[in-house]
Amino acid sequence: MEEKAIWVVGGDERMAALSRLLEEDGYRVYRYGLERRIPCCETLEGLEGARGVILPLPADDGAGRLRLPLSDLELTAAEVLDRLEPDQLLLAGKASPALRAQAGERGLVLRDYFAGEELARLNAIPTAEGAIRMAMEALPVTIHDSEILLLGFGRLGQALGPRLRALGGRVFAAARRGEQRAQAREMGLDSGSLSAAGKLGRFDLVINTVPAAVLGEEELSRLRQDALIIDLASLPGGVDDAAAARLGRRVIHALALPGREAPLTAARYLYGAVRPMLEE
After folding, report:
1. What is the pLDDT of residue 62?
2. pTM given for the model
């Protein structure tokens, strides 16, 4: 095994930036599936000799395919895992149950670098900033004085709420858990359940962070025709897209915003998470 050899396989702009940070730290980095942004290896030859293999965030689509948005190649997780040796280190972000099972069957040491609270919270910052930029570009009104419905008040909701309020938005944070509603009120936001939000027709902007069906046909029908919906939740999201299309509601699905909005910042956060795992 080549002790300082690291493979970065697939991913978006932040993974390309992460590979550069690893090189600056003295690792010998091999790249695959990032060729639109950075020179890459043409094959996976030598993968089995690496100290560690880093997969994207999220690693796969849940159906076994790795995410390669910067490549024309198609690659399954199995094609990578089959090349690795037992006990080899595999780092992945938001590893699906299928990926975990495949790694276990092959005796690989799988570490999910997104499982830690620190990275998850830091990652919410560029996501929040990116969502606000998108809202500013798409809305016909300013954030200031806008009525904003924020669905969910987890890490991402907690990053978004104060920022929207600082811009003068009137934010209602709808959260299921009482402690999250209390946190929102501590930050100076209105808060309650979705049913307590009142007339949905008053909102200019709806931002969803809940990875569950929260905006069905009934809720969408009660929104104004010109309201903007930004869905930040993981696939399949929280919006009934078919109903939104029938009703003519504007929906923006904004996934992987850190890799698009602030890839270097996101890469630095990733680096802080993966480096201790590589040094174990």
Report:
1. 78
2. 0.89
